[in-house]
């Protein structure tokens, strides 16, 4: 544990260098807020560590496998679980990191994801929206369930960092090519199918956004992502044992198999035969108190209730007009959220796994929601200003002016 305490201060020092560099780039960036977020995230590292003492956790297997590995390190550079061993091995097998220390390392990866999602929101959404008297973005940054599943040794923390880097880079992909490449590689190495959703979302968003983008840039983005998906398509399909000659049938077989496996868990809720809308609702918003699996599920139910309240704000006559006028980032986020949700909902019959998996996609939904709320707020401000100008014109008509 002493080593973990030393790492806490080391990462805090590294954070200051990173955060101050971002403060110079972005006038909105708050170093104080991000430092608070760091220590808040550390709290969940501690909570998760205590949780693993008396509960099964994949982090224990990752630690032992990475520490005991004696082969060629580069042989571990493979997709899915093996990639976690690849990242952890230099620290556990070479530097002698303890279980607590490598847990903290991956927790820090998750924190880096939050920093970049914070920039993604603040850079593209300028108006603050308050709910219950609090800044909505602050509430979203401090959601407990999001921190719990990104604070340990495993896929959740590092893929969240990859997604944050990707989202941050897409505002200026050419200027932020390193972040875009790093984020894309991380996501692909952990979940190749998630990389496919990112690519599809980026291409659709870039081509349909309201920004005036030169044709060569659109072609560059299309070629980059379409080419990447094509080159890696075999690996993406292989992750789910999908036969490219019968993609739909193979995917249905895979989802049935996975749902059967997951439903045998104690927190399982078999949704295999549910219609798609109910599957999606289950993935996004359950558990909701009545079906909460244990104390953790009840705690998460409060957060899911907030998700329901926020999502309900999209049920508005102005949403479609907003979507037509929205930026490429909004459309990209919506495509990523919907496409990945549909795919994941087919295999999420276990509420415990659903709570963990949806941490990958919820911030994309939140970005769409907050962008829409900003649109509504701007529209309201514009109407108030128009009304004020009309009242001024009625009070002082042009014919009453001392000059013509």
Which strands sit side by side, in order, in the main sheet?
1-2
User: Which percent bin holds the helix content?
Assistant: over 70%
Which structural class is indicated by helix and strand composition? Answer: mainly alpha
Overall pLDDT: 82
Question: What sort of overall outline do the alpha carbons produce when their principal axes are compared?
Answer: globular
What is Rg? 23 Å
Low-confidence stretches: 240-267
Helix-strand pattern, N to C? Answer: HHHHHEEHHHHHHHHHHHHHH
Total number of strands: 2
β-strand amount:
under 5%
User: Given the structure, what is the number of helices?
Assistant: 19
Main β-sheet description: 2 strands, antiparallel
N-to-C terminal Cα separation, in Å? 82 Å
List keywords for this structure.
mainly alpha; two-stranded antiparallel sheet; globular; 404 residues
What would your notes on this structure say?
- The protein is an all-alpha fold and 404 residues long.
- The chain has a domain at 1-190.
- It is 72% helix and 1% strand.
- The protein is built from 19 helices and 2 strands.
- It has helices at residues 2-25, 31-54, 58-68, 81-94, 99-124, 136-141, 144-148, 155-169, 177-190, 192-208, 215-231, 233-239, 247-263, 276-285, 294-312, 319-325, 328-345, 351-357, 362-395; strands at 130-131, 134-135.
- It has a two-stranded antiparallel ribbon with strand order 1-2.
- A hairpin with a 2-residue loop joins strand 1 (130-131) and strand 2 (134-135).
- The longest helix is centred in the C-terminal third of the chain and has 34 residues, at 362-395.
- It starts with a helix and ends in a 9-residue tail after the last helix.
- Mean pLDDT is 82; it is low at 240-267.
């Amino acid at each position: 544990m002493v080593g973990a305490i030393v790492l806490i201060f080391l990462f805090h020092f590294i954070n200051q260098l990173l955060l101050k560099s971002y403060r110079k780039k972005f006038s909105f960036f708050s170093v104080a807020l991000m430092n608070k977020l760091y220590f808040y995230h550390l709290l969940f590292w501690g909570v998760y560590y205590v949780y693993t003492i008396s509960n099964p956790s994949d982090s224990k297997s990752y630690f032992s496998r990475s520490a005991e590995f004696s082969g060629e390190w580069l042989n571990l550079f493979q997709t899915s679980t093996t990639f976690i061993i690849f990242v952890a091995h230099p620290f556990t097998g070479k530097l002698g990191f303890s279980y607590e220390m490598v847990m903290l390392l991956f927790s820090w990866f998750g924190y880096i994801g939050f920093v970049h999602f914070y920039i993604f929101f603040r850079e593209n959404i300028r108006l603050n929206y308050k709910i219950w008297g609090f800044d909505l973005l602050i509430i979203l940054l401090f959601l407990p369930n999001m921190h719990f599943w990104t604070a340990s040794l495993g896929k959740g923390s590092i893929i969240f960092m990859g997604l944050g880097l990707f989202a941050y880079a897409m505002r200026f992909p050419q200027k932020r090519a390193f972040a875009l490449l790093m984020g894309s590689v991380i996501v692909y190495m952990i979940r190749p199918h998630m990389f496919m959703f990112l690519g599809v979302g980026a291409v659709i968003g870039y081509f349909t956004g309201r920004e005036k983008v030169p044709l060569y840039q659109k072609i560059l983005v299309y070629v980059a992502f379409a080419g990447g998906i094509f080159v890696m398509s075999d690996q993406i399909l292989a992750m789910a044992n999908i036969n490219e000659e019968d993609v739909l049938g193979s995917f249905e077989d895979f989802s049935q198999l996975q749902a059967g496996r997951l439903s045998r868990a104690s927190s399982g809720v078999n949704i295999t035969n549910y219609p798609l809308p109910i599957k999606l609702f289950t993935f996004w918003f359950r558990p909701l108190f009545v079906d909460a699996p244990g104390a953790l599920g009840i705690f998460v139910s409060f957060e899911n209730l907030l998700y329901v309240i926020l999502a309900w704000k999209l049920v508005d006559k102005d949403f479609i007009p907003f979507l037509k006028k929205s930026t490429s980032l909004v459309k990209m986020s919506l495509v990523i959220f919907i496409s990945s949700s549909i795919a994941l909902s087919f295999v999420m019959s276990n509420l415990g796994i659903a709570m963990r998996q949806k941490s990958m996609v919820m911030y994309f939904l939140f970005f769409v929601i907050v962008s829409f709320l900003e649109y509504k707020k701007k529209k309201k401000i514009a109407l108030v200003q128009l009304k004020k100008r009309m009242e001024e014109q009625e009070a002082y008509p042009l014919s009453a002016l001392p000059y013509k």
